[in-house]
Amino acid sequence: MVSGIVSGRLALVTGAGSGIGRAACQVLSREGATVIAADKDYEAALETIKKHSALASGSNAVGDHSAVELDVSSSKSISELLSKLQRQYKAPPTIIINSAGISRDNWMLKLSEDDFDRVLDVNLKGTFLIMQTFAKALTEASLPGSIVNISSIVAKYGNIGTSNYTASKAGVIGMTKSAAKELGKFNIRVNAILPGYIDTPMAATIPDKVMKNFLKRTPLGRLGDPIEIAEVITFLSSDKSSFVTGATVDVTGGF
């Protein structure tokens, strides 16, 4: 049996097929959690479990890791997932990581309504639906929990070509603070992480010239590694942060 700061916990990670979500699965499983890797791309989630999670071929204290297909913008998809997890693990996850996110960048004057709606559906509404569904399950089971929402440093400062993405991530911050106030009485903590520029598939789409400018404005002078975000996710998921709720944590290299 693995001992670690989240040993024996069941953790749901959305957007687990790549980037920060995949890294969160790696670190949470290393620290003893049983991980449910959820992603719209089931094969990518399965690869996370098979190749990137500790004890992938065995189990941690709660049971085997699992991969699931999930559309976070669909309440039906989310409620079906909860029912499946209740059957499989006999309890809801007590760690919920909202890492699913998309971007559809364009200048504001050219941004289509569809691209605006889709980004908010996944990044903001998806985070809301996951929080609402799983926090309700925790309260009904009288279980404490920790929810960690992935926002972005652009929510604070804005960025050209990302008005939809920036709005969605700023919304996540406000929603995190409100949820923390509502859920505190149930001993469910809710916090947000604001990553800077991280070496993920999403960052790979940023033009070189723009990226060089970002790195000049980052005192540590490099992209972050997804694992560096995942370490903070795991801290906020654990009892090491037992008096932290409603907080936003910048992990940006000083950007």
Automatic annotation (TrEMBL):
Pathway(s): Steroid biosynthesis; estrogen biosynthesis; Lipid metabolism; fatty acid biosynthesis
A molecular function GO annotation: testosterone dehydrogenase (NAD+) activity
Top-tier EC class: oxidoreductase
Chief location of this protein within or outside the cell: mitochondrion
Keywords per UniProt: Fatty acid biosynthesis, Fatty acid metabolism, Lipid biosynthesis, Lipid metabolism, Mitochondrion, NAD, Oxidoreductase, Phosphoprotein
GO cellular component: mitochondrial matrix
InterPro entries: NAD(P)-bd_dom_sf, Sc_DH/Rdtase_CS, SDR_fam
A GO BP entry: estrogen metabolic process
Compartments (UniProt record): Mitochondrion matrix
Binding partners and assembly: Heterotetramer with CBR4; contains two molecules of HSD17B8 and CBR4.
Protein name as it appears in the record: (3R)-3-hydroxyacyl-CoA dehydrogenase
Organism of derivation: Papilio machaon
